[in-house]
């Protein structure tokens, strides 16, 4: 049987470890929280597309180019700057897209900023339902990248792969965890 000194030392080490893990988790979650500015929640994301800036701008302004899942009408604000405003849904939102040449001539970087208004209760219910604007913006940028580079949205969910249904379910669970940043 261990003496009281050993027990206290073990309790101290356990407490320090738990506190460290708790702080690491809190820091990770804090990074994923949207910023607050003037009553708006603000989410920023970026993606690099392997196309010149003119081709990317044409994609956003050409209505026959398909739908990237973007809410509202896109308007051109200047060279390489677009914006949108959407009030169709229950949450008013607006956003800005900036097109910048990628470093070393490797295409175009699409920088998107989404601003939305939501009360704390509505935001919590939205997060519980899986309606997280950060993930929606990330998904929309991924879809836009696929449409710009390939002309279609690539999705392998219903493609035959030779895997069993159990393996497909495991892949879907892993995909969902990756898409939600490990919070599925």
In short:
The protein has 184 residues and is an alpha+beta fold. 44% of the residues lie in helices and 23% in strands. The chain has five helices and six strands; from the N terminus they run H-E-E-H-E-E-E-E-H-H-H.
Q: Largest beta sheet, briefly?
A: 6 strands, antiparallel
Second CATH tier, the architecture of the domain at 33-153? 2-Layer Sandwich
Task: Report the oligomer.
Answer: single chain
Unreliable parts: none
Average pLDDT reading: 78
Q: Class of the domain at 33-153 in CATH?
A: Alpha Beta
Strand-pairing-aware structural class:
alpha+beta
- The Cα radius of gyration reads 22 Å
Distance between the termini: 42 Å
Number of strand elements:
6
Into which percent range does the helicity of residues fall? 40-55%
The CATH homologous superfamily of the domain at 33-153: START domain
- SSE succession: HEEHEEEEHHH
The CATH topology of the domain at 33-153 is given as: Alpha-D-Glucose-1,6-Bisphosphate, Chain A, domain 4
Shape: extended
Number of helices: 5
Q: Biggest sheet, strands in spatial order?
A: 1-2-6-5-4-3
């Amino acid at each position: 049987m261990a003496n009281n000194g050993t027990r206290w030392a073990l309790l101290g080490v356990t407490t320090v470890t738990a506190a460290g893990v708790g702080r690491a988790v809190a820091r990770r979650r804090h990074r994923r929280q949207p910023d607050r500015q003037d009553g708006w929640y603000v989410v920023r994301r970026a993606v690099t597309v392997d196309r010149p800036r003119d081709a990317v701008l044409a994609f956003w302004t050409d209505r026959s180019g398909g739908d990237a899942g973007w809410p509202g009408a896109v308007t051109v604000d200047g060279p390489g700057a677009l914006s949108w405003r959407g009030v169709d849904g229950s949450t008013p939102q607006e956003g800005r897209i900036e097109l910048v040449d990628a470093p070393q001539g490797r295409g175009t970087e699409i920088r998107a900023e989404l601003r939305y208004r939501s009360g704390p209760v509505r935001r919590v219910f939205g997060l519980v339902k899986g309606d997280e604007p950060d993930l929606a913006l990330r998904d929309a940028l991924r879809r836009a990248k696929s449409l710009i580079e390939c002309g279609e949205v690539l999705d392998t969910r219903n493609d035959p792969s030779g895997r069993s249904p159990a393996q497909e379910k495991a892949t879907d669970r892993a995909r969902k965890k990756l898409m939600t940043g490990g919070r599925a």
